[in-house]
Amino acid sequence: MSLLTVKQLTKSYQAGKTAINNLSFELNKGECLGLVGESGCGKSTLARCLLHIEPINSGSIYFKNEAIERLSERQLHPYRKKIQIVFQNPSAALNPKLKIKDSLIDPYAQYSKELNLSHFSYTSKEAFVKQLLEAVELPPSLADQYPHELSGGQRQRVTIARAISIEPELIVLDEPTASLDVISQGAVLTLLTELREVLNLSYLFISHDLAAVRQISQRIMVMKDGKLVDQFNRDHLFAEERHPYTKELISFF
Question: What SMART domains does its record include (predicted)?
Answer without folding.
Answer: AAA (SM00382)
